[in-house]
Design brief:
five-stranded parallel β-sheet; 11 helices; globular; binds flavin-adenine dinucleotide
Length: 417
């Protein structure tokens, strides 16, 4: 069988790993120009592998498979030198958050770090190209597909017996095109996570960083929105992320090089009802408006005090940003963000302050736009030879869940052969 895989990210890794030793011809189309430029988003920029039943996606992935996939990635590293830990192992800390209305999220994590990720990607790639039936096509962005009678055509690259779309969040343009053409593939399309990246001095969260590295909590704010922390980076760095037509903010940390700040996302989950059906459009508009105010390619940085009181920030005080100066502008996020989101975030931070004193300090830093798209949920049952895996399917939000999704889809593919 001739199989086409669009995108070489975490989900594709799981799928290819499962089917690599078969007689099928496997063609992987990746828009980046070579393996060094390939993003594998999370795997390249940070690489925290989580094993948890409570986060990572809406699939039921057994703890055993999650652990197996962590071992799979770690075994590709030469040094096996990684940071590991568990969140909320201490009942005393769990209760401290719980008493103030927070829901702690329990997970085990394995932190590879940005610096070791390049090696990991190369080793995975080297293993795959040693199989004669696996063909990589870099610099090959798929811009359209066509469902034919018993084949799937990839615009400019011919027809395939089976196609697996694994384009992650950065492939939103292709996904939009597909669902516009084949709206029957959509099963759910109403959620988006919109928020900020928060940066504070390490010493404010020292105990938590030492105890669990990654603290994840959820909170029902006074607006009714659920607000959560995401992607905590002790001694980390804030970065911007290029989505092609807009920029957002993100964070990462390295195993060797450390900063004196910790950053994490504070996100409000927005679930809208009919006739709304374009969460990516909504998130993109807010991001573009923020970029418009900041100037092309830039994001807005503001102190927490000014964010709370809707005043433009002109000077910083004690906390200095880890994001390079040419990538942000000091401004007022309130000019771009809906009020309900801002109020939800402020409510979250104010309630967190008694649990983590100093978290609401006036000179802490707020960056926007920070957006996590819950991509449209796609129906994988509808067309048997056309599947979506990983984040672009709307079912996953983490490296391990995306890899597991690919792996399980590979298993399903083999059993149907
Ligand atoms: C900066 C950042 C840090 C993160 N950190 C973590 C973390 O520490 N831990 C964690 O669990 N999760 C993390 N995540 C989330 C995690 O990266 C994703 O959940 C996971 O990578 C999803 O895997 P995927 O295969 O679905 O997509 P991806 O890994 O994003 O791979 C998609 C691939 O498809 C390619 N592509 C896109 N469109 C096309 C097209 N039209 N044609 C051809 N190729 C295309 C892309 O270039 C990319 O290589 C992070 C995400 C980001 C953005």
């Amino acid at each position: 069988m001739k199989i086409g895989i669009i995108g070489f990210g975490a989900a594709a890794v799981g799928f290819v790993e499962k089917i690599k030793s078969t007689h099928n011809q496997i063609h992987i189309f990746e828009k980046n120009e070579n393996i060094a430029a390939t993003s594998l988003s999370g795997i390249r920029a940070d690489g925290k592998l989580f094993v948890s039943k409570e986060m990572g996606g809406d699939l039921d992935i057994s703890m055993e498979l999650q652990q197996e996939l962590v071992d799979y990635y770690v075994n590709h590293l030469e040094s096996k030198n990684i940071e590991t830990g568990s969140s909320f192992r201490s009942m005393e800390i769990y209760q401290r958050f719980y008493e103030k209305g927070f829901q702690p999220v329990i997970s085990n994590f394995y932190h590879i770090g940005t610096d070791q990720l390049k090696e990991l990607i190369f080793r995975l790639y080297e293993n795959f190209i040693s199989y004669k039936n696996i063909h990589f096509h870099f610099n090959s962005e798929i811009t359209d597909i066509e469902i034919q009678q018993d084949k799937i055509k990839l615009a400019g690259f011919g027809s395939f017996d089976h196609v697996v779309v694994a384009v992650g969040r950065s492939g939103h343009q292709l996904i939009n095109r597909i669902i516009k053409k084949y709206p029957e593939l959509v099963v759910d399309n109403t959620m988006v996570d919109l928020g900020i990246r928060y940066e504070i001095p390490n010493h404010v969260v020292e105990e938590l960083n030492r105890e669990m590295y990654e603290f994840k909590v959820k909170f029902k704010s006074k607006t009714g929105y659920i607000v959560r922390t995401f992607c905590n980076n002790p001694s980390g760095y804030v970065i911007t992320e290029n989505y092609g037509d807009f920029y957002t903010v993100n964070g990462h940390s390295k195993l060797k090089e450390k900063s004196s700040n910790t950053n994490f996302a504070v996100l409000a989950t927005i679930q809208l009802t009919q006739p709304f059906n374009d969460p990516i459009g909504y998130g993109s508009y807010v991001a573009k408006l923020t970029n418009l105010l900041a100037g092309k390619d830039k994001i807005i940085l503001q102190t927490y005090h000014n964010f709370k009181h809707s005043k433009r920030t002109k000077n910083l005080y004690r906390v200095m940003p880890t994001l390079p100066e040419d990538q942000y502008i000091l401004g007022d996020i309130n000019l771009a963000y809906p009020r309900r989101i801002i109020e939800s975030i402020i409510d979250f931070i104010e309630n967190l302050d008694p649990v983590i004193p100093g978290v609401a300090n006036p000179d802490n830093l707020v960056y926007a736009p920070e957006i996590k798209f819950f991509t449209t949920k796609i129906d994988n049952q509808r067309i048997s030879n056309f599947n979506f895996i990983g984040d672009c399917s709307g079912a996953t939000r983490s490296i391990i869940y995306a890899t597991a999704h690919g792996y399980l889809m590979g298993e399903k593919f083999l059993s149907a052969e």
